[in-house]
Amino acid sequence: MTQQTQQTPPADSTVQSARDSLATATPGRVTLRSLRKVYGDDASATPAVRDVDLDIEPGEFITLLGPSGCGKTTTLRMIAGFETPTAGEIRLDDDLLNKVAPNKRPMAMVFQSYALFPHLSVFDNVAYGLKLKKMPSARVTEEVETALTSMNLGPYRDRAPHQMSGGQQQRVALARALVMRPKVLLFDEPLSNLDAKLRVQMRGEIRRLQRRLGITTVFVTHDQDEAMTMSDRIVVMNVGVIEQVDTPEEIYRHPLSVFVADFIGRANFLDVDVQGIEDGSARVSVLGRQWTVPSHPEVEVDAPVTLLVRPESVRLSPTDGRAVTGSVGRVLSSMFYGESIEYDIETEAGNLVVSVADPHAHETFSPGDYLDVGFEEGRAWLMPVGDEPQ
Ligand SMILES: Nc1ncnc2c1ncn2[C@@H]1O[C@H](COP(=O)(O)OP(=O)(O)OP(=O)(O)O)[C@@H](O)[C@H]1O
């Protein structure tokens, strides 16, 4: 049996004061202008990133989110300097970075694979960059100890990376980034290799750390929960272009495109007839009734539209109806998740996914039941069906 050494974790206040001493005095502002990347020599090839404009505010936690191949990693690697832009500008505060080598940019990157040196101890991994900068060794020791304490890693300083769990290795990678006191912290899918529970725990840990340090942070992920729970703002990308930049709540409630509505959270799209539009709200008819719903500024009466209704905004109640027509729908299936129950409901406007929180507080329904189906008007969102980028 292996004997577990009981390590006394440092008091929370020790960790916090180590974090405070690493806090960023001047977080950087990152500006991307018409940023473009075409891989290879063929200028007519499809760009991986197309003319991206983005302002990342000092101290902001911004996430690049999108499906595989949408260009988020390429964008991050251009900010870091690992890829050269084909066109456009990258600025940190007022400085143009395009021609600045990665190791000369005041930025640090944390990778999915941790990228630790396997033959070096935790201490030496964290010290590596400072030694390259020829910092006097007493200062190196002091700085590394502070970074290790800030990540609760003091007791592990002499271990090799392979003697640590994935989560611990990722914290070493973070300490190694922080010790350089960067103006911008970059993360490339840093939690993908961790198991589900640890991933959730690390989200909170990274976010708290980032807030405490006040450091500008660019985080790449394809996991929408990660993006929603961690970010000040999310940049949703699709085939090399930015579809929307906004707070998680705005992106969820008021997506600017069908792609964003579908990619973030779950969505029901209803075909509706539009009767009129005024001051950001529209009168529509669907499910046998008239509704007044908030509407996207670019919706026009005669142009193609769809009504977004999130699963938790659908309202169900018993009915005497016995046919799927008008407001009457029929339960196709139900799934009990403990904290919520989910139904698939057939309606004349299409099948709806419905999520009811706290099932014990509500009447539950069974497959075959007929129900009156409605939704919370104020939480629906009428949006144009535009040309999605190819
Ligand atoms: N080194 C490369 N050479 C050629 N094409 C590349 C290279 N790296 C990426 N690409 C292409 O550029 C596009 C964008 O890739 P990128 O890795 O930026 O996307 P991503 O959104 O980060 O995807 P993932 O989540 O799968 O990493 C893809 O079509 C990809 O195949």
3D structure, described in words:
The protein is of the alpha+beta class and 390 residues long. It has two domains: 11-106 and 182-253, Rossmann fold (3-Layer(aba) Sandwich), CATH 3.40.50; 266-384, OB fold (Dihydrolipoamide Acetyltransferase, E2P) (Beta Barrel), CATH 2.40.50. 24% of the residues lie in helices and 31% in strands. It is built from nine helices and 21 strands. The protein has helices spanning 12-22, 72-80, 122-132, 137-150, 166-178, 196-213, 224-230, 248-253, 258-263; strands at 30-37, 49-56, 61-65, 87-92, 95-96, 107-110, 184-188, 216-221, 233-238, 241-246, 268-270, 273-278, 281-286, 289-294, 305-309, 314-318, 328-336, 340-347, 350-357, 370-375, 381-384. Strands 6-7-8-3-9-10 form a six-stranded mixed β-sheet, with helices on both faces. Strand 18 (340-347) and strand 19 (350-357) form a beta hairpin. The model is unreliable at 1-6 (pLDDT under 50). Residues 39, 48, 66, 68-74, 222 line the site of adenosine-5'-triphosphate.
Protein topology:
Blueprint: H1 12-22, E1 30-37, E2 49-56, E3 61-65, H2 72-80, E4 87-92, E5 95-96, E6 107-110, H3 122-132, H4 137-150, H5 166-178, E7 184-188, H6 196-213, E8 216-221, H7 224-230, E9 233-238, E10 241-246, H8 248-253, H9 258-263, E11 268-270, E12 273-278, E13 281-286, E14 289-294, E15 305-309, E16 314-318, E17 328-336, E18 340-347, E19 350-357, E20 370-375, E21 381-384
Parallel strand pairs: 3-8, 3-9, 6-7, 7-8
Antiparallel strand pairs: 1-2, 1-4, 4-5, 9-10, 11-15, 12-13, 13-14, 15-21, 16-20, 17-18, 17-20, 18-19
Helix pairs in contact: 1-4, 3-4, 3-5, 4-5
The structure holds adenosine-5'-triphosphate.
